[in-house]
Amino acid sequence: METSSHYKIPVSKEGLTPLMQQYISLKKEAGSMLLLFRLGDFYELFYDDAEKASRLLNLTLTKRGFANGIPIPMAGIPASSLEQYLSRLLEHGESIAISEQINENFSNIKNNLVERKIVRVITPGTIIEDSLLPLKSDRALVAINTTKDGKTGIAYLNLANGDFKIVAHSTEENINSELHRLSPAEIIFSETTDINTRQYDFTAKYTPVPEWHFEYENAISYLLEHFRIDSLSSFGLDGNHQNIGAAGALIRYASRSQSKELSHIQNIYIERTDQLVFLDSITRKNLEINKTINGDDSPTLFSILDRCCTQMGSRLLRKWLNNPTQITSTILLRQNAISSLINYFFYKTDIKINNLDLIKSKLKQIPDIERMLSRIALKYIRPREIANLKSSMKLLPDLYSYIKLIKESELIENINESILIDPGISEFLNMSISEDPPVSLKDGGVIAYGFDKELDELRSISDNNSNFIKKLEEAEKAKTGVNNLRISFSKIFGFYIEITKSQLNKVPSTYRRLQTLKSTERFTIPELKQWEERILSSKEKAISREKFLYDTVLQYLMNKIKEISLCAKSLSELDVLISLAEHSYINSWVPPIISDKTEIIIDNGRHPVVEVNTKIFTPNDCILNDEKRMIVITGPNMGGKSTYMRQVALITLLAKIGSFVPTKKATIGNIDRIFTRIGASDDISGGKSTFMVEMIETAAILSASTNRSLVLIDEIGRGTSTNDGMCLAWSIAERMINFNRSLTLFATHYFELTQIPCESQNAINVHLSAIDSGDDIVFLHEVKLGPANQSYGIQVARKAGIPIKVIENAREKLNNIDTINTKTCISENRSQYKNKAAEENIYREIKSINVDAITPIEAINKLYEIRDLVNKLE
Ligand SMILES: Nc1ncnc2c1ncn2[C@@H]1O[C@H](COP(=O)(O)OP(=O)(O)OP(=O)(O)O)[C@@H](O)[C@H]1O
């Protein structure tokens, strides 16, 4: 077995072949990334890289020559299957540098060595290839800049669609929630900061980059150069050092990955997170927006709503769900658009054709234009993709005319205006790109006939080939008298004249022999050779002319990028709105009233995900407002407490993205944040117990929730002793009512906590009802006023299949505990009552003293009496 030292790359280039010396130089450049070194039809990996790739990709680890007598470990992958291997390496979180043979023209080769360069670096956050990207989600690249004076800057870039943003108001505390909101594939940070990747509860590739990339001066000059401007003030970015540091480092890293300028990134936006409804990372998880608690893709809020026809639409829907907004005008525009779509699709009786299907069928034919744009800008786009773009452009006028019939929505009107882009683009693509282009430019036939005269002439030469050959064949037959003379083509000899051996005596001396076969001989003549050169050079010239013209087409599209990108954005917006409208209609969702008070009023609310997976869902109401800020929820296990709480949060969230909601009626007020503390999970790898996790999450809620926040707290205090747990839960509830004053749903199994509404008029008790029929329990899932009168834990355990003996034993123990508790309660109550009476007596005594009239002796005696009364207190 070889030891790992065999895989170590040599420190010096001495004794290495020129090829390996070239490899070592490029590997130094690639650093810790895997270097795919192009050698003919293969990409090869050497030393450590070979060992790693063979392990991760299941490749044979072999050897390629020797370095100073030691075999060089090597693994290779065929160039034709590159993308498939790349995707597997990326899945393992690897970053890859690709080196290509740059100048294969023989006259330029020095020392028999083709020049090679790293042309591309692919890291999880810098992918633009469609085949490597998830279809329905983005893979952002995030930069976190933590400056020496403790400030935090966050910037993010979606290289595949060119979205480049700075996150305003970033702080160390909200990094986690930002990471969950943006869901990046890769995070870059300064190698000198003590960023402890484990402190962020988000899984991604964490890549350190040199500190100077984040330094303000370097970052700003890189950004100015990138945008070719003198000041960042036009982006509203002046002076914010930490954000500019993050943005500069980010664009430098992304540009380097492509070894090209990212000319399609023409703007940087500031994202005002204070205008969003804040959701921390735990809340995003608990509400199962993108993934279920178990990490599955469905059923989630996204999965049930995603009826989108385009991938762009699905990605935008995910974005909306993860960015609920506090801007009422945005919400109302979307709500109004959904209403108009529903009216048009489902209630318009004068339209005979099914317009919903018609529009959806058009949308389904639209490719991922958004992602194409960056591939156009970086010139990675394949001819067939441009052909797809061309065909989709043809669909737009029809789509426009259908949408035009939808009235009374400003948003739909705006969307439609951007859908109808300059018809010149479609015309240009029709003229320039052939109907069915080949996969690769090298094969020729990408540019349409009639687009370029020079190309057409070059093509006509080869098109004339069969004519010319036929004529020459006839002429040579006549000249030589060889009737069966034939002109053919082979890859090795090019064009040749074939003559059977029996006719050889007729071959003229001007014929030059090329090859002798069993029964024939092959010859060439000067006319044939000249023709061959003309043909081959015209083919070569035609391909290079096509490459040039293809670049011209790309350049044309680059100049139209803003317009096409706006069109793509509008198509995705339309797709999301149609998806929401269809779901709302089918499931009887309604538009909520958006109010500016702090309130949530839900009439017959349902859980959006549970309702589609349950035969009969019991709707429930919820009223939270300035007067009733806390609802204490009790009821049996499995009674529906968590579902009820989550549905209130999800209805609020849906209202805040401008969607309709699963209710009969709803008013959703001015909510700034949603927090949840639901269920028990421990973080063993992070060294935290269930109880610790619970307390950390609750501490975060207590410190960050405001009087405009919605807070869900489910069964707090379970992980410790009953008394500690109950008292903590009680005290936390009191803090929420009296200090944070958030709108709070507080579910608990501690019946003692149903006292809270007696102490505070801002709280009420509700319970989830159930019927106990002795042997069985039936959950009604109905929220009723007042506290639950029993816990049903034992009945639920019985239903779950706990052995009957264990159940009976538990019942017995419960009876005993109840008797002890009742006794204690009675005696405690009695003594409390007695004390109260004695205190009142003392109070009366003191109050009855007439201080102005009493003599000193009487005063002393009174004092003795009062002391005796106090002594009687227990
Ligand atoms: N309103 C409802 N209508 C119909 N089915 C419901 C309703 N609410 C809950 N359910 C069903 O009951 C199941 C249990 O609900 P849920 O988890 O909310 O109960 P719970 O009271 O929180 O239980 P536990 O206290 O054990 O956590 C859900 O999975 C759902 O299928």
TrEMBL record:
Positions bound to ATP: G635, P636, N637, M638, G639, G640, K641, S642
GO molecular function: ATP binding; ATP-dependent DNA damage sensor activity; damaged DNA binding; mismatched DNA binding
GO terms under cellular component: cytosol
DNA repair recorded as keyword: yes
Top-level taxon: Bacteria
Family matches, as Pfam families: MutS_I, MutS_II, MutS_III, MutS_IV, MutS_V
UniProt KW keywords: ATP-binding, DNA damage, DNA repair, DNA-binding, Nucleotide-binding
Stretches that traverse the bilayer: none
GO terms (BP aspect): mismatch repair
SMART domains membership: MUTSac (SM00534), MUTSd (SM00533)
Domain DNA mismatch repair proteins mutS family: start-end pairs: 709-725
PROSITE patterns: DNA_MISMATCH_REPAIR_2
HAMAP family per record: MutS
The family this protein is said to belong to: Belongs to the DNA mismatch repair MutS family.
Biological role stated in the UniProt entry: This protein is involved in the repair of mismatches in DNA. It is possible that it carries out the mismatch recognition step. This protein has a weak ATPase activity.
Protein's UniProt name: DNA mismatch repair protein MutS
Protein species of origin: Candidatus Kinetoplastidibacterium galati TCC219
Lineage of producing organism: Bacteria, Pseudomonadati, Pseudomonadota, Betaproteobacteria, Candidatus Kinetoplastidibacterium
Originating gene: mutS
